[in-house]
Design brief:
Length: 682
C-alpha cells in the first residue's frame, strides 16, 4: 500500500513536470541560466562567491576556495612551487600559527585528508573544508582559514624548509610505471604546449633549492581576489553565509601588479602523432586513438543539445565494443569511447582498447576498422532508441533524487562553473530541457556528429605494453601503418541484434506467505514464504527513487573443495558476463534499456547471493532478474572465452608490479599460506 501511494505521487509529479515542459519552449540560442537556488555575486575586489543552502548531509557545510593559478603559471625556476604553496597554506597564516589550523579542525571531528584538503592542477588550486555547522564559530573559522589561504599566508623560511621534504616525498611516492608512462606520453598528448613541461608535482631539484622569495613571488603574483571564488554549500542559512563571506573576504587586496597570463594554447596539429611506451612494471597492454578538436561553447541550449548527442555517440560505441570483444576471433579484450577535455581550449574524442601482449597493432587496427564502420554507415535506429531510453532514465532518476544531492557534489559543480564556465542550471531546468530535446534528436544527427568526431586530423595514438623479451613492440611507424590497415579493411553495415521478449518468458507460480512478524526497534517487517525464504523489509527515505535488495546465504567459496576454489571464486563474475534466463548478457542489457533495474550474483569467502536495485516502478523487473539469476544462470561459450582471454592477459604479467607482489605476499602471511590466499596462476 505504501509503494502504491508513492508511485501515484511520483506519477502525479511527472505529469506536472511534463505539463510544465510543454508550456516552456527552449530556443537553441537561449543562454542556459544559473540555478536560481545559487546566491552569487562579485565583491568590489573582484572575488566571486557561490552560496547555497542544502541539508544533505545535515549539520555540515562544504567550503571551497578556487584559485585560477596552477603549474602552468610557474616560471622555469618555479616548477613545483604552486603545489608547495598549497602545502604551506596549512603551515602558518595570519590567524593560525603553524600546526594550529589542522589541530583546530581535527578538534571538531574534521580530519586532514577526508575533510581538510587541497589539490593543485595545471590551471587551478582548490582548497576544500568539510565542517560541522552545529557551532557558528566553526564555520566562521573555516571562512577565516580560506581567507588566509587567499591572502594571508606567512610563508616563513623556516616552515618552507620544513615542508620541502614533504612535497619531495609526495613526488617520490608517485614514481613508478604510471609516472614513467606519463612523462613519455604528455609531450605527445600536449604537443608543443606549456602543459607538456609543467607537471603540477614539479621538479625535485627546484623543490629542494628554490629560494623562499620565488615562492612568495608566485603567491603575490597569482593569488589575487579577481582570480578567486569562494563556494559554500551546506546546512546553513544562505543569507548569513553571504554576509560572512563579504565581511571575511571583502578586505582582500592584490599584492602585486597584474601579470600577463601564460600561453595555454594546445595546438591542433594536422599530422598523426604516436607514442609507444614499454615499462618493466606494466601489467597490461592497451592502445588509444585520441582526436583533438577546439573546445566548443557550452553556454547555450544548442550546445547542451550537442553534448547530449556526444553522450549518445559514446554510449552506442560502448555497446558495439562490448559486442566486438565477445566475438570468438576478437583482437581486443575490451574497448570504450569517451568525449572529454584535454585543456580549457581543447576537447577530445578517444577510443581505447585493452589487448593481449604483442597485439598492439591488432588492437589499433580494430579501433580503426570500427571507426570506419561508423563513418561509412553510421548508427542504427534501434541503437539510437536504446540510447534515448538510457538517457531518459538517467535524467528521470536525477530529477526524482533532486532533494537528495550531497553538498560536496554541488560544491564541485559550482567550482566548475567558476573555473571552466560550465553551466549549472539545476536539475529541474535540465530535466525539462531534456524532455523537449530528446524526441527531436535523430540517429542521422548522431551519425553525422560521430563522423566529424572521427576526423583524421590531430590524432594522437598512445600505446602501452609490458617490457619483456618475448613481446614484439611495434615502432611508431608500424603502429601508424596498422591504422592504415584498419582503415583499408572492407566494412559492412553493423547488424544490431534485438530481442522482443521480456526478462521472463513465463512467470513462476505465485508463492504463499507463511508468517509475518516485526522488529519494531529496527522498523523491519519479516515475511516468511512457504519455501522457507525470509524477506526482511525496511522502508527508508535515503533515496526517493531507489529500492535496494540482497539475497544472502552463508557459505560462499568456503563450501568449495580446495581444488575447485578458483572456479568458485570466478563463478559469480562469469554469470555476470554470460547472462541469465536464456539471454546473453548483451541481449539482456538491450531488453533492460531504459529500465533502472539490476540484479548481480556475488561470492565471498563466507557468503554468497544476489544483490540489486531498482526504481520503485521497476522493482518487479529487478525481482524477475533476481529469480532468473538464481534459477537460470547463463553459460555462454563466447563470454567464457573472453573471460579466459582476459585472465590470460592479466596473468601473463603477474609478479611485475611491486604493489601486486606485496599484496599477494601479505595475504599469504596473514592467512598462514592458506589455499584461499594463493594467487591465480596460468
Amino acid at each position: 500500500m505504501i509503494i502504491t501511494k508513492r508511485l501515484l505521487r511520483t506519477f502525479a509529479v511527472l505529469l506536472l513536470v511534463a505539463a510544465a515542459a510543454a508550456a516552456q519552449t527552449f530556443n537553441p540560442q537561449d543562454v542556459i541560466p544559473l540555478d536560481k537556488a545559487i546566491h552569487t555575486a562579485t565583491l568590489t575586489n573582484g572575488l566571486q562567491y557561490f552560496v547555497r543552502q542544502n541539508s544533505r548531509p545535515a549539520k555540515r557545510v562544504s567550503l571551497r576556495l578556487a584559485v585560477k593559478a596552477g603549474s602552468v603559471n610557474e616560471t622555469d625556476d618555479q616548477q613545483g612551487l604552486a603545489h608547495l604553496i598549497e602545502h604551506m597554506a596549512f603551515n602558518g597564516s595570519e590567524h593560525f600559527k603553524p600546526g594550529e589550523l589542522v589541530s583546530f579542525f581535527e578538534s571538531t571531528g574534521s580530519r586532514l585528508g577526508p575533510h581538510v584538503n587541497a589539490y593543485t592542477s595545471f590551471d587551478e588550486t582548490v582548497y576544500m573544508l568539510d565542517l560541522p555547522t552545529d557551532k557558528p564559530e566553526i564555520v566562521s573559522n573555516g571562512l577565516t582559514a580560506l581567507a588566509d589561504f587567499a591572502g594571508g599566508l606567512t610563508l616563513s623560511t623556516e616552515e618552507i624548509n620544513k615542508e620541502r621534504g614533504v612535497v619531495i616525498e609526495e613526488w617520490r611516492g608517485g614514481l613508478g610505471a604510471g609516472s614513467r608512462i606519463r612523462d613519455k606520453q604528455f609531450p605527445i598528448l600536449f604537443y608543443k604546449s606549456r602543459y607538456a613541461e609543467r607537471l603540477p608535482i614539479g621538479k625535485p631539484e627546484i623543490l629542494r633549492n628554490a629560494p623562499p622569495e620565488r615562492l612568495r613571488s608566485f603567491y603575490d603574483t597569482w593569488y589575487r581576489p579577481d582570480r578567486m571564488a569562494v563556494v559554500a554549500v551546506g546546512d546553513v542559512d544562505a543569507g548569513d553565509l553571504e554576509k560572512d563571506i563579504t565581511a571575511t573576504f571583502g578586505g582582500l587586496k592584490a599584492r602585486g601588479p597584474v601579470a600577463p597570463q601564460p600561453d595555454r594554447t594546445v595546438p591542433i596539429h594536422q599530422e598523426t602523432l604516436t607514442s609507444v611506451v614499454t615499462d618493466p612494471e606494466v601489467t597490461s597492454s592497451n592502445v588509444q586513438i585520441v582526436r583533438k578538436r577546439p573546445r566548443e561553447s557550452e553556454s547555450r541550449v544548442g550546445d547542451y543539445r550537442r553534448q547530449l548527442i556526444e553522450r549518445f555517440v559514446d554510449h552506442m560505441f560502448d555497446e558495439r565494443f562490448s559486442d566486438v570483444a565477445r566475438k570468438p576471433d576478437s583482437k581486443i579484450l575490451g574497448a570504450g569511447a569517451s568525449n572529454s577535455s584535454l585543456s580549457r581550449g581543447v576537447s577530445t574524442f578517444t577510443i581505447a582498447a585493452g589487448v593481449q601482449d604483442g597485439k598492439l597493432e591488432d588492437g589499433v587496427a580494430t579501433l580503426a576498422t570500427e571507426a570506419k564502420r561508423v563513418r561509412e554507415f553510421g548508427f542504427g535506429t534501434t541503437e539510437m532508441e536504446r540510447a534515448k531510453k538510457w538517457m531518459a532514465a538517467f535524467y528521470e532518476r536525477a530529477y526524482n533524487e533532486r532533494d537528495k544531492t550531497e553538498s560536496g557534489q554541488l560544491a564541485a559543480e559550482y567550482i566548475r562553473v567558476f573555473l571552466d564556465d560550465e553551466p549549472s542550471p539545476g536539475i529541474e531546468y535540465e530535466y525539462r530541457l531534456v524532455q523537449q530535446l530528446l524526441p527531436g534528436i535523430t540517429v542521422n544527427e548522431a551519425s553525422a556528429l560521430a563522423k566529424s568526431l572521427l576526423a583524421d586530423n590531430s590524432r594522437v595514438v598512445l600505446a602501452v605494453s609490458p617490457q619483456k623479451p618475448n613481446i614484439r613492440i611495434p615502432s611508431d611507424a608500424e603502429l601508424q601503418a596498422a591504422i592504415t590497415v584498419g582503415n583499408a579493411a572492407p566494412v559492412t553495415e553493423w547488424i544490431d541484434t534485438t530481442s522482443t521478449r521480456g526478462v521472463m518468458e513465463r512467470l513462476p507460480a505465485t508463492g504463499a506467505v507463511g508468517s509475518r512478524r516485526t522488529i519494531d526497534s529496527l522498523g523491519v517487517t519479516i515475511v516468511k514464504f512457504g519455501n522457507g525464504v525470509e524477506a526482511w523489509l525496511k522502508p527508508t527515505d535515503f533515496k526517493n527513487d531507489q529500492v535496494l535488495f540482497s539475497l544472502n546465504a552463508s557459505g560462499g567459496t568456503s563450501l568449495a573443495p580446495p581444488a575447485d576454489f578458483p572456479e568458485a571464486s570466478m563463478s559469480a563474475g562469469y554469470v555476470g558476463i554470460a547472462g541469465v534466463g536464456g539471454l546473453k548478457a548483451l541481449d539482456m542489457q538491450k531488453v533492460l534499456a531504459g529500465k533502472l533495474a539490476s540484479a548481480r550474483p556475488f561470492m565471498s569467502l563466507s557468503s554468497h547471493g544476489i544483490s540489486g536495485s531498482a526504481a520503485p516502478a521497476q522493482l518487479e523487473t529487478a525481482l524477475q532478474l533476481l529469480y532468473q539469476t538464481f534459477t537460470a544462470p547463463g553459460d555462454d561459450s563466447d563470454a567464457f572465452a573472453l573471460l579466459k582471454r582476459q585472465l590470460d592477459a592479466m596473468l601473463a604479467n603477474r609478479g611485475r608490479a611491486p604493489g601486486q607482489v606485496f599484496a599477494e605476499k601479505l595475504a599469504q602471511v596473514n592467512s598462514s599460506n592458506h589455499y584461499t590466499s594463493q594467487p591465480l596462476t596460468t
